[in-house]
Write a structure and sequence with these properties.
571 residues; alpha/beta; eight-stranded mixed β-sheet; eight-stranded parallel β-barrel; globular; binds phosphoenolpyruvate; binds magnesium ion
Length: 571
């Protein structure tokens, strides 16, 4: 009899294989008396050195198997191990003054660090706590001389099941045979989810009842539905085989649309760009056929670290992104934090309603010490390719002018210092209804618009993004949202500036025709969505797109919008 276990799908796809449960053997730190402090201190140094060597090896392996971005987690681990002030010296102190053994000192110090991260109470910090535990285990294994198991050297395909997967677990896995990941712990931004999406394999987190499942059992993992079907029956196997064959066929037919320009059947060209968070993601974007980067969320360079990246480090990241895009346009958005995005290195004031608070450009305008280094690094990187600067959360002309003045100040500084800079276009995100309503005026002073539907929806409908209680209200299909999009595109067209879109709605095939028909000329999305949208555009004429836009905008309620969208042909 089959059994279905449920969790939350964080990476789409289907896999059928046997389960491999990755148990984590509990490490036991002997509580007996320690050796002489001098001896324990030497033992600690040896353990630290071994762990550093191991992390260097894992880093190289991760870069080869998964790419630079995934390897960065090991740089973060190395930084912690080299942190004399809050990590290494306190452990030595515990050995010297409290007579602890090296493993006891490691356990005490790392548990305290995890507790500190956990007490900060947000999801990102909880993940930092998990990383700290990973590091503790590696150090203890080095000190206690214990080896761990893992999913290395596999001779068959498996779905890996674990309570939690840590970065060091995944890197040591034989990824050519891992066809799915399922864990009890972890969220959509946790390591498991990121790795699975990078590898394009299904993943489910938050799996309940997982302890009952044993290795060797056959199972079907559905990353879309968030289910793990253990011991599937013949009907379930047959259903899997059918959808798997259909998926493979679809993948193959889409492959041709990666390497072709984007145009309608009657030859009107559009642009499909990629959303990225680091230069490491350019490779995947180009592989999927991105014609540019429509949104580089620079805040990702600032996240998950204890300090702020300086001008030099940012310059390197932006330069790499434009160089790797080989002359294609790259739109880099200045720091957009606040709201749901918090930075450990930049504590912001506690606010009752952070989404309506001092976030994004409102914050950077108040912090020239943060904004100017970013603007300087962007101007410097612009000397290496086609770079545009985009300001997030612009609500009116004053903000746009103030941000542009700051950019000018950065340019003057660099010129006075004799540092080379490049020309940049300066655009804005239209993601606040006020900006959409003032688009006609803003278009006279901005070089381009990019509509951010993720925020535009929440501010138009007063329904917080990510709040499950109002998830039913949060939709791009509300006529008010569609009218604001149309008004923005019309204003851009009248002023002769390009209008793009980089919110999630840009990758929604149901909206593609109408968006193009409204005058949105560039759609920026998660790279894997590009081929499908390109194929769709190739089957439409410009007149069809315009007719669909007109019809869509004539609907007066969300239900009618949905009915119309679902009735479209070829989507
Ligand atoms: C948006 O708001 O649509 C957008 C693209 O920005 P973010 O999701 O980063 O807020
Ligand atoms: Mg936004």
């Amino acid at each position: 009899m089959s059994m279905i276990f449920r969790g939350r799908g964080v990476s789409d796809g289907l896999a059928m294989a046997e389960i491999l449960v990755l148990g984590r053997a509990r490490l036991h730190v002997p509580d007996g008396p320690a050796g002489e402090p001098e001896e324990e201190l030497r033992r600690l140094e040896r353990g630290l050195e071994q762990t550093r060597d191991r992390l260097q090896r894992l880093r190289t392996e991760a870069a080869e198997k998964l790419g630079e971005k995934e390897a960065e987690i090991f740089d973060a681990h190395l930084t912690v191990l080299e942190d004399e002030y809050s990590v290494v010296e306190p452990m030595r102190e515990l050995i010297r003054t409290q007579g602890l053994s090296a493993p006891q000192a490691v356990e005490r110090q790392f548990d305290e660090l995890s507790e500190m991260f956990r007490s900060l109470g947000d999801a990102l910090m909880a993940e930092r706590a998990a990383d700290t535990q990973d590091l503790k285990e590696q150090l203890l294994r080095a000190l206690l001389g214990e080896e761990d198991g893992g999913a290395c050297d596999l001779d068959r395909n498996v779905i890996v099941l674990a309570e939690e997967l840590l970065p060091s677990d995944t890197v040591r896995m034989d990824l050519s045979h891992v066809v799915g990941l399922a864990t009890h712990l972890g969220g959509a931004t946790a390591h498991t989810a990121i790795i699975a999406r990078t590898l394009g394999i299904p993943a489910v987190v938050g799996l309940e009842g997982w302890e009952e499942i044993s290795s060797g059992t056959e199972a079907i993992l559905d990353g879309g539905a968030g289910t793990l079907t253990v011991s599937p029956g013949e009907a379930e196997r047959e259903a899997f085989r059918r959808s798997d064959a259909a998926r493979q066929e679809e993948e193959q037919s889409l492959a041709a649309f990666r390497a072709m320009p984007t145009a309608t059947a009657d030859g009107k060209c559009f642009e499909l760009f990629a959303n990225i968070g680091s230069p490491g993601e350019v490779k995947a974007a180009l592989e999927q056929g991105a014609e540019g980067v429509g949104l580089f969320r620079s805040e990702f360079l600032f996240m998950d670290r204890a300090d702020l990246p300086g001008e030099e480090e940012q310059f390197e990241a932006y330069r790499q992104a434009v160089e790797r895009m080989e002359g294609r346009p790259v739109i880099i958005r200045t720091l957009d934090v606040g709201g749901d995005k918090k930075l450990p290195a930049l504590p912001l004031p506690q606010e009752e309603n952070p989404f309506l608070g001092c976030r994004a450009v409102r914050m950077t305008l108040k912090r020239p010490d943060v904004f100017l280094p970013q603007l300087r690094s962007l101007l410097r990187a612009a000397a290496y390719g086609d770079l545009s600067v985009m300001f997030p959360m612009i609500s009116g002309l004053e903000e746009l002018r103030a941000a542009k003045a700051m950019l000018e100040q950065a340019r003057e500084q660099l010129e006075a210092e004799g540092v080379p800079t490049g020309r940049v276009k300066v655009g804005i995100m239209v993601e606040i209804p006020a900006a959409a309503l003032m688009a006609e005026r803003l278009a006279r002073e901005a070089d381009f618009f990019s509509i951010g539907t993720n925020d535009l929806i929440q501010y138009t409908l007063a329904a917080e993004r990510g709040n499950e209680n109002v998830a039913g209200l949060y939709t791009a299909y509300h006529p008010a949202v569609l009218r604001l999009i149309a008004a923005t595109a019309r204003a851009a067209e009248a002023a002769g500036i390009p209008c793009g879109m980089c919110g999630e709605a840009a990758g929604d095939p149901l909206l593609t025709a109408a968006l193009l028909g409204m005058g949105v000329g560039e759609l920026s999305m998660s790279p894997r969505l590009i081929p499908r949208v390109r194929r769709l555009i190739g089957g439409l004429t410009l007149e069809q797109c315009r007719a669909r836009a007109r019809e869509l905008l004539s609907q007066s309620d969300e239900g009618a919008v949905r009915t119309f969208l679902m009735s479209q042909e070829n989507v």
